[in-house]
Amino acid sequence: MIDEILAGIFLASIFTFSLWTLLALLPERKHSNTFSKNLSVVIPAHNEESCIKETVESVFKSEYAGQIEVIIVDDGSKDATPKIVEELTESNKSLRLLKTSHAGKAAAANKGVGESNGEVIILLDADSRLEKDALQLLANPFSDEHVGAVSGIIAVASNNNPLVWFQDFEYVLSSMWRYIFDKMKCTYILPGFAAFRKSVLEEVGGFQTDTLSEDFDIGLRIRKLGRNIVMSKAVMHTNVPQTIRGVASQRFRWGRGTIQVMRKHKDMFFNLKHGLIGFYGLPNQAYYFVQGFVIIPITIYQILDGYLNYFALQNNLLSLQVAKYFFDWFSMIGTVKFIHNTLTGAWTMAWTFPIFLMSWSLTNIYNIIAIKKMRRARLKVFLTLIFFFPYFLFTLSFYTLPFFAEINPFKKRAGHVNIWEKNK
User: Could you tell me the residue range of the domain that residue 354 belongs to?
Assistant: First the structure.
């Protein structure tokens, strides 16, 4: 039974990565580079004293053909965030500080949008650094009047913490996923670096506070208006959690928010009116949660079954051979050895092996293309790729656990849930 389930997963992977690789290799969408109407950069902030100055400075260093105003919305910070921003306003008339009483990120964003003067609103996380051409690249697609919103690429501000390297590669895959969906003309997620036509934001009623993923929710609501959303090559660098606990907390919150939004917009699933978003985009995203309930138990079973039969029952509970066994399971090196031993006849070839090999090969071809398109090819990135599997299982589990927290028919679904949470 396990072999049949794995074969189904491998076949789904072959279809997915064949399609995505083909789309990735198609010519990129071109946008006009003449947009120069006024921009308002809105930055919701809560306890951001360690990074807010650098974020503001990166915005004003950006190259943009038109006028820029920056609005910091301090949402009840208890640290020196408002003081730092007030000092910055003294030397820059294009910077304003607004204050709210800890109402949450969505409410803070709405406050900034309501006080803005620009035709296009850039929503930016407070711990961000923009590349010099980011604002221009993000704004250019608005030369097309049918475009209601534009997403950018979020890259990780890397350091020497290996946990950050894994998140960096994870963000590469996330950006590449949105890039592929943009090729399919079904972009609908607007993460922490996105631009909106102000009139569209007003028409859709701004950000709502009933989910933990306001960026996902507003993308679907804009799509329901019939407005286009596209992805640009604008790059923003962001800080990420530095501890395992921080990553787990963040992924758990993302998982809850995703389930909340999919439940809220369940009418879009398999709805002809919404095209590929309803028939491919949202089902594909839901499949990620399904994977967790399949891949995690099977992986745990296979690892423990092998350990029990080849080591524990032979009174070999802990040794170099045992360490090597687990190392091979949790690295690409072990996979390569498995493929080599099977192809050379040292190990018996299972009937699932050919489809596994095709799935594994296509996945890694796609990953290399993603690295090339979304991030500079560096040694850290490739080291991460080699040891990515255990991190994938770890994050997948914290996307799966929210299912139990959210899929509860007796749980009340109304009210304000969009709150700030810092992950260290």
Answer: 2-22+287-406
